[in-house]
Amino acid sequence: MNDTLPSALSIGLARTGIELKEFFRLRETVVFTFSFPLILLFVFGSVFDTDLAPGVSFTQYFAAGMIASGIVLSSFQTLAIGIAVERDDGTLKRLRGTPMPPVAYFLGKIGLVLATSLVQTAVLLAVGAALFGLELPTDPLLWLRFAWIFVLGAGAGTVMGIAYSSLARSSKSAAAVVSPVVIVLQFVSGVFFVFTDLPGWMQAVGSVFPLRWLAQGMRSVFLPADFAGAEVSGSWQLGPTALILTAWLVIGSVLALRTFRWQRPGSR
């Protein structure tokens, strides 16, 4: 007889499977998460067919921003709304009463974010390449760059989503509290428009938040190297990108640890 208890990691992996099953059962959430970036790519790619620079179409520029935005949707928005709903309907309280280690719950959420973000990014790249001539990198070093930007961006979005979920008083208010923040960040971070075309004050506001740096990092992967001269600083700023995304990862982790609650205030 084997009396060895399963590790938190193994339980977290099992929890990831449960999270994915629950996610794909919510048809509205699945459709919005995966179709919204595709719809925007189709609309903007069809309307704006001009070149921003030699060899750089608006579609190529916009696709990089939508990849970054998709990561934020799959991490920050999905978790901030989803956890608020689970807290409101008592799911978190019931889970806390089980022998499951709390860390396994969060590992499950991390697994959910990584899986859905990867699928969404793959779909965006496939559709962009097939319908809009999106050029994919051939240099392995660019894909390595993509990997660390993706991981830092998804990590920052995940912990901030967990922390932000505490602001929603109920499941009914969750979307209203979260969605406007994501929309505003998309506008001020160079997702819907070329970042250098935004007013200076808007660039300054956007530069405080991780989406601006995540979008610029993705442009450094999918746009030609010489396009870096068209950025605000005249370079891709990979160092600052890594530092700021890491800073938000740390800040979000601290906030999540301090603010996360297994049940809504006032409940017993």
UniProtKB/TrEMBL annotation:
ABC transmembrane type-2 domain: which residues?
28-263
Top-level taxon of the source organism: Bacteria
Transmembrane segment boundaries: 30-48, 60-85, 106-134, 146-167, 174-195, 242-260
- What's the protein's topology in the membrane? Multi-pass membrane protein
* Subcellular localization: Cell membrane; Membrane
For this UniProt record, the keywords arranged alphabetically read as follows:
Antibiotic resistance, Cell membrane, Membrane, Transmembrane, Transmembrane helix, Transport
Pfam families found in the cross-reference section:
ABC2_membrane
Instruction: Name the family the entry cites.
Output: Belongs to the ABC-2 integral membrane protein family.
Q: Protein name, please?
A: Transport permease protein
Native species of this protein? Kineosporia mesophila
Species lineage: Bacteria, Bacillati, Actinomycetota, Actinomycetes, Kineosporiales
